């Protein structure tokens, strides 16, 4: 089974940004999708927000 949730460390590996910036990205995505604090961000939501093709992500995240 592949993972569907993305974490700041994953975003850090993909973008090369600091962990704090990655936490801010997740917070922004939650705000855009009207998610509550306890809800997670999916890999697809991250890709849509960042304009990244899901198929170009590293295999280890899938």
Summarize the structure.
The protein is mainly alpha-helical. The protein contains 3 helices and no strands. The relative contact order is 0.21.
Topology:
Blueprint: H1 8-15, H2 19-32, H3 43-50
Helix pairs in contact: 1-2
Structure overview:
It is a single chain. This protein has helices spanning 8-15, 19-32, 43-50. It is mainly α and 62 residues long. Helix 1 (8-15) packs across helix 2. The chain is globular and about 30 Å long.
Largest sheet: none
Oligomer status: single chain
Q: Beta-strand level of the residues, as a percent range? A: under 5%
Percent range of helical residues: 40-55%
Low-confidence stretches: none
β-strand number: 0
Give me the Rg, rounded.
Answer: 11 Å
User: What order do the SSEs take from the amino end to the carboxyl end, as H and E?
Assistant: HHH
**Helical stretch count?**
3
Structural class by helix and strand composition: mainly alpha
Straight-line distance between termini: 9 Å
What's the mean pLDDT score?
Answer: 91
Tell the overall outline. globular
Key attributes of the depicted protein:
62 residues, mainly alpha, 3 helices, 48% helix, 0% strand, globular
């Amino acid at each position: 089974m592949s993972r569907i949730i993305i974490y700041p460390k994953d975003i850090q590996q993909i973008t090369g940004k600091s962990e704090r910036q990655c936490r801010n990205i997740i917070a922004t995505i939650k705000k855009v999708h009207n998610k509550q604090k306890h809800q997670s961000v999916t890999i697809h939501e991250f890709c849509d927000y960042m304009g990244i093709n899901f198929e170009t992500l590293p295999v280890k995240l899938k």
